[in-house]
Amino acid sequence: MTTVQVPTIKLVIDGQFVESKTDQWRDVINPATQEVLAKVPFATAEEINAAVASAKNAFNTWRKTPIGTRARIFLKYQQLIRENMQELAALLTAEQGKTLADAEGDVFRGLEVVEHAASIGNLQLGELANNVANGVDTYTLLQPIGVCAGITPFNFPAMIPLWMFPMAIVTGNTFVLKPSEQDPMVTMRLVELALEAGIPAGVLNVIHGGPDAVNGICDHKDIKAVSFVGSTHVGTHVYNRSSLAGKRVQCMMGAKNHGIVMPDANKEQTLNAIAGAAFGAAGQRCMALPVIVLVGEAQSWLPELVAKAKTLKVNAGCQAGTDVGPVISKQALARITELIDSGVSEGATLDLDGRNPTVPGFENGNFVGPTLFSGVDTSMRIYQEEIFGPVLCVMHADNIEQAIELVNANPNGNGTAIFTRSGATARRFQEDIDVGQVGINVPIPVPVPMFSFTGSRASKLGDLGPYGKQVVQFYTQTKTVTARWFEEDEEVGALNTTISLK
C-alpha cells in the first residue's frame, strides 16, 4: 500500500519559508471529504523567538522607509491578489468548506483593506499648531511602535489576516502572524504574494501553533501590540495576558447578533436577507444573524421564513449551486448538534431540523443543514451561547420598545440590524440600540475599510478596532513636539526656559 505524502506548511522567518523542527504536527482536513490536505507544525519556542527577533531587527530599517515606498508595495499587493483570486478562493474552500462565492467574498473583503493600506499617505498624518507662543510651534508625529502580532481564526482565513498585517506594516511596523492551525493554506498563499509584492525580509513573519504559540506571543517582551479575532474565551485570555505584559491589545470576540423585523418591512427582501445572514458560510461568522425578533404582525411571517430556509442547498462548497457548505470540523459539528438537541429538550419549537442531512458523494462531510427554532426565550442555551452554525432562533416582540430592550439586555454588542420602511423607526433604533455596528435593511453591517470595525461590549476588548482610522492610532505612537527656533543673532535670557501661553 502506497502512503500518500501530503505537503507540510512552512514557517516564514526573515523572508524565508522554513521547515519547522517541531515534533508536533496537525492535519489540515477538507471538511467536506475528510481528506488530509497538508500538515501544519506547532512551532517551537526557539522558532517563535527567531521570528520575533527577525521582526525586531527589520524594524530598525523598515520604520524609516519612506511612506510612499510602503504604499506602493500594497498597490502591487492588491494587484497580485486580484490576479490570483480564483486560486485563493479554491484553496479557501478546500480547507475551510465555505462555498466558492463566499470564499471569493472572504478574499475580496480583505483585498479592500489592502487597497485602504495603499492610501496610508493620507491616513498617517500628524497635526500642527503654528505659533502657539512667541515663535513656538507644536506638532505631532504618528510613529510606528515596533513588532506587532496577529492571531487569526478559522472562519475567515483570508479576510482577517488581511485586516491585520497590511495596516500594521504600512504604518511602519513589522509583524508576526499566527494563522489558524485549522486552515492555514490560503493564509500562507497570501503571505507568498505579499513577499512577492516587495515586503522586505523580516517585516512579515509567520509562525503556527496552538495555545503555546498564543501564549508565546502574549508574553514576548519584544512584541508591542497584539491583534486577535476569535472566541470570547480565548480573546479574554489574550487580552488579559498581553495587557499584563504591557502590550496594546485589540480583541474582536464572540457575538449573538439580533435582527429586528418590523411589520412594514419589504417581506421578500427581508426574508432573503435573513436566510443569507443566518445560514450563509454555514453560520460561521461573528457577524452572522442567528437571532430574529419578529415584531407585531411580522410574527405571521414565520411559515414563509421556514419555507425560504428549506430552499437552501446543502453540499460541498466546491459544488455549483451550494448555499450551505460543511462546518469546519467534526468537533464543531458535534457541538452544534448538541446545542440543537438542547433547544429541543428546553422546549423550543424545532420548525426546521438540519441535523444529519444527506449529501450524496460527500457522506463523510461535516454537514448540518439550515435549522430554525421558534418559541425561543432568553433562558435557553441556543439563545445564550454562540452556536457558530446554521441555526436561527426566532423570537417575538409586541413593539419596537420591547425589541430594543431585548437586544440591549444581551451582553454582546457586535452587530444588529433592523428591517423597516420607516425612517423614524430606523433612526430611533440606531440611537437607542447599545450595539457597536448597526444595519438598516442591511443584515451584516460590517463597515467598509474607510471606517473601523466597531463591535462593542462583550464582543470587544480594547479601545481601538481593526482597519479604518482607529487602527492607524492602534499601530502608531503619537509623539508631540514643541519647537522654538531662534535667529542666530537673537539673544534669549538664560532663565527664559518656560514657554508662556498667555
TrEMBL record:
The keyword NAD applies. The keyword Oxidoreductase applies. Keywords: NAD, Oxidoreductase. Its EC number is 1.2.1.27. GO terms for molecular function: methylmalonate-semialdehyde dehydrogenase (acylating, NAD) activity. Coiled coil: none annotated. This is methylmalonate-semialdehyde dehydrogenase (CoA acylating). It comes from Denitrificimonas caeni.
